[in-house]
Design goal:
Elements lengths: L1 E2 L2 E2 L7 H20 L6 H17 L10 H19 L6 H8 L4 H17 L5 H13 L1 H24 L1
Antiparallel strand pairs: 1-2
Helix pairs in contact: 1-2, 1-3, 2-3, 3-4, 5-7, 6-7
Length: about 160
């Protein structure tokens, strides 16, 4: 079942959805490969940010807790696009991200989750987001507490990663 562009299955594994978005993004990354000598790096990076990255990040908070293999699949698509942009087959993924001043897709998802949780905690989120969190808290107070515990864990994790950069 497809809901607002996100493919859902019976197990909420999101494998089908991630495969679909990776196929779309990979096709577009292939265009970057073919354009490697025709346009500047800056133009290719702008194309990536405007045409490929949105495919990889649309509703990514929803499917953040997918299988590790699916998460790696999306990271590989980003890596392939960055290799095409910088025409560099030898650099590591981290070096490519630094060249483009980009975050890994996992870090983007974590950052967006933190932003959402901050907005929810401080009543800055849209009412729909608030009602979802309140719904889960009514089902189980533990769930509500785990969300904010998870937020604190992610904050600590992100802080340690930022300090390592």
């Amino acid at each position: 079942m497809k809901l607002l562009g996100v493919t859902l299955d019976d197990e909420l594994s999101f494998s089908t959805h991630i495969s679909d978005i990776c196929k779309k993004a990979s096709k577009k990354a292939g265009v970057l490969v073919r354009l490697r000598n025709m346009i500047t790096r800056e133009a290719k990076l702008q194309l990536y940010k405007s045409a490929i990255l949105p495919n990889l990040t649309y509703c990514h908070i929803v499917w953040h807790f997918c299988k590790a293999s699916d998460a790696r699949k999306s990271e590989r698509v980003q890596e392939r696009a960055l290799r095409a942009i910088y025409n560099d087959r030898n650099a590591t993924y981290k070096e490519l991200l630094e060249k483009g001043r980009l975050s890994s897709l996992e870090n983007r998802r974590l950052q967006d989750i933190l932003i959402l949780m901050y907005k929810v905690k401080n009543s800055l989120a849209p009412d729909d987001s608030m009602s979802v969190v309140c719904f889960f808290s009514k089902i189980s107070i533990i769930t509500y507490e785990v969300i904010f515990l998870f937020q604190d864990i992610i904050l600590l994790s992100m802080a340690s990663r930022v300090s390592n950069i």
